[in-house]
């Protein structure tokens, strides 16, 4: 005997849960709010996705997939290496200062809030950074081959240095939401490459 078929769209439920976690963090996302925003009862929600932790992991992975695709599209677009790095950093600023200001980057805040306490979230976050690092490594390798970027450091070292500045910029976007300040950070960062 099989259970009743699902009468909801998994993708829509995950998107709604992602929005709750993104806006409220893990601890601030109550079961009541998750149920309200997804339109599911607690039993249906947890039967479908396990528990709050599992739902958070699924939502975080979805957020990261979307974010990685958006960032890869920017980094793989036409233009010089510096133009693409600039576009990525400005994309981050727009996200941090835009209409959803205050939410910041869910992937980054998952690391700051949960990774130290939760090895699954730490691993999800590590894999995400490695994927972004690979896209950046490719960009720097191409830049070194065509002479746009110095070969004094390896492409991997350059990618990691950029990641450090990029994530620092995203944190600063929350604590110093001043466009001129953040543009100065970008200029200083790009001067190194």
TrEMBL record:
Keywords associated with the record: DNA-binding, Transcription, Transcription regulation
| Pfam families named among the record's database cross-references | TetR_N
Determine if DNA-binding is one of this entry's keywords. yes
What is the annotated signal peptide range for this record? none
Identify the InterPro entries for this entry: DNA-bd_HTH_TetR-type_CS, Homeodomain-like_sf, HTH_TetR, Tet_transcr_reg_TetR-rel_C_sf
DNA-binding segment(s): 30-49
Q: Where is the HTH tetR-type domain?
A: 7-67
Q: Does the keyword DNA-binding apply?
A: yes
Protein name, as recorded? TetR/AcrR family transcriptional regulator
Q: Which organism is it from?
A: Citrobacter enshiensis
Source taxonomy lineage? Bacteria, Pseudomonadati, Pseudomonadota, Gammaproteobacteria, Enterobacterales
């Amino acid at each position: 005997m099989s259970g009743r078929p699902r009468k909801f769209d998994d993708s829509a439920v995950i998107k709604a849960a992602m929005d709750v976690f993104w806006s409220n963090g893990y601890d601030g996302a109550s079961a009541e709010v998750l149920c309200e925003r997804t339109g599911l009862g607690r039993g249906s929600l947890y039967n479908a996705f396990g528990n709050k932790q599992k739902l958070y992991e699924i939502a975080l992975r979805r957020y990261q997939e979307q974010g990685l695709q958006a960032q890869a599209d920017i980094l793989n677009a036409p233009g010089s290496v510096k133009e693409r790095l600039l576009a990525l950093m400005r994309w981050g600023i727009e996200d941090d200062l835009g209409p959803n200001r205050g939410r910041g980057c869910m992937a980054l805040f998952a690391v700051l809030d949960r990774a130290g306490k939760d090895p699954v979230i730490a691993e999800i976050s590590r894999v995400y950074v490695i994927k972004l690092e690979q896209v950046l490594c490719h960009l720097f390798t191409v830049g070194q081959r065509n002479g746009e970027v110095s070969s004094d450091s390896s492409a991997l070292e350059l990618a990691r240095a950029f990641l450090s500045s990029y994530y620092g910029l995203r944190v600063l976007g929350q604590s110093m939401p001043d466009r001129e300040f953040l543009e100065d950070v970008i200029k200083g960062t790009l001067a190194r490459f």
